[in-house]
Design brief:
- By secondary structure, the chain is an alpha/beta fold.
- The protein has 2 domains: 168 residues, Glutaredoxin (3-Layer(aba) Sandwich); 115 residues, 2,3-Dihydroxybiphenyl 1,2-Dioxygenase, domain 1.
- It has 8 helices and 15 strands.
- It has a 5-stranded mixed sheet with strand order 5-4-3-6-7, covered by helices on one side. A 4-stranded mixed sheet has the order 8-11-10-9, with helices on one face.
- The two termini are 55 Å apart.
- The relative contact order is 0.13.
């Protein structure tokens, strides 16, 4: 098989890991973007340091939704012995017969002098050796091809290759930092507010304060008086705000249509809340079977009231 390149499907052969037998690579990928990190064998101190470093920082990949699968030319029992009880947070494929290496045609060299032939290679290798020394790793069993060079492959959730890198020297593989830099930033979001347009701002504010205990947090008024926006909060119980927007030139009730959008409020005293809203005459729908009810604000917006439930 020829060297693979971006746009092609990654090989889905049956492999063994240090803890699993006869598993398809696609099962290890598990429908997630994945990096394959091809090293030599666990007894190699440089490779051992790579595995150690990845294990320490693997949660950074988890947070970004990306798998990393390490591939080595080691036997599962030797990996387990050298890990000495350590449980890896990632999959480590044990390709002791080098079937995957050969199928992908990973590079190898003919002499140790060719392992780090350039100043750049020597500099990258020096960083790893310093890490090895700091951790006190010693060389273990020799396995596989001692002249093997590394490789790096990135695939998407469907195992289509997005990057294929064939190492030209022993340290020619992305570091943990370099792999993390390859992952596009995934912005996070959180709820901040919900907007309701209201016809009578003061009436609505009074309702929300009386019915649900909401208080004005801030407001924004147009210089020409064309609108007023008021944000109401629950006194710090949550960061979520209700945004009430009043438009000066809106002179008719809002048509809410058939869309049953609503906010929900949880209360620690459901019976007292129900009695309060019954007295106010704002309960518009009850569902005793589900243990909830709805109230309606002055503009007809529905608001769900639910009890705090024991887990």
């Amino acid at each position: 098989m020829a060297k693979v390149k971006a746009g092609e499907k990654f090989i889905d052969m049956t492999v063994n890991t240090n803890v699993l037998s006869n598993v398809k690579i696609s099962q290890l990928v598990d429908g997630k973007p994945t990096f394959f990190w091809f090293l030599r064998y666990i007894g190699c101190t440089i490779c051992r340091w790579d595995v150690h470093t990845l294990a320490q920082r693997y949660n950074e990949f988890v947070k970004k939704g990306v798998n990393v699968i390490v591939v080595m030319q080691s036997k599962p029992e030797i990996v387990q012995r050298d890990l000495n009880g350590q449980v890896l947070p990632f999959h480590l494929i044990c390709d002791e017969n080098q079937e995957l290496y050969k199928a992908l045609e990973l590079n190898s060299v003919e002499s140790k002098e060719q392992m780090a032939p350039t100043d750049e290679a020597k500099a990258r290798l020096a960083v790893k050796r310093a890490g090895v020394q700091a951790e006190g790793f010693v060389h273990g069993d020799y396995e596989g091809n001692e002249m093997q060079l590394p490789g790096f492959f990135a695939v998407d959730k469907d195992m289509v290759i997005t990057e294929a890198h064939y190492g030209e020297h022993i340290a020619d593989i992305p570091t943990v930092d370099e792999m993390l830099a390859k992952i596009p930033n995934k912005p996070s979001f959180r709820f901040v507010h919900e907007n309701y347009n209201v016809k009578d701002l003061e009436k609505s504010m009074k309702f929300y304060e009386e019915a649900l205990g909401l208080k004005e947090v801030k407001r924004n008024e147009a210089a020409d008086g064309s609108f007023i926006i008021v944000y109401m909060g629950d006194g710090g119980l949550s960061d979520f705000l209700l945004e009430l927007t009043w438009l000066r030139d809106w002179d008719r009730p809002y048509n809410l249509g058939d869309n049953e959008i609503h906010l929900a409020f949880r209360t620690d005293d459901f019976d007292a809340a129900y009695a309060k809203h019954k007295e106010m005459g704002c309960i518009c729908f009850e569902n005793p079977k589900m243990g909830i009810y709805f109230i309606s604000d002055p503009d007809g917006y529905w608001l769900e009231v639910v009890p705090t439930r024991k887990k």
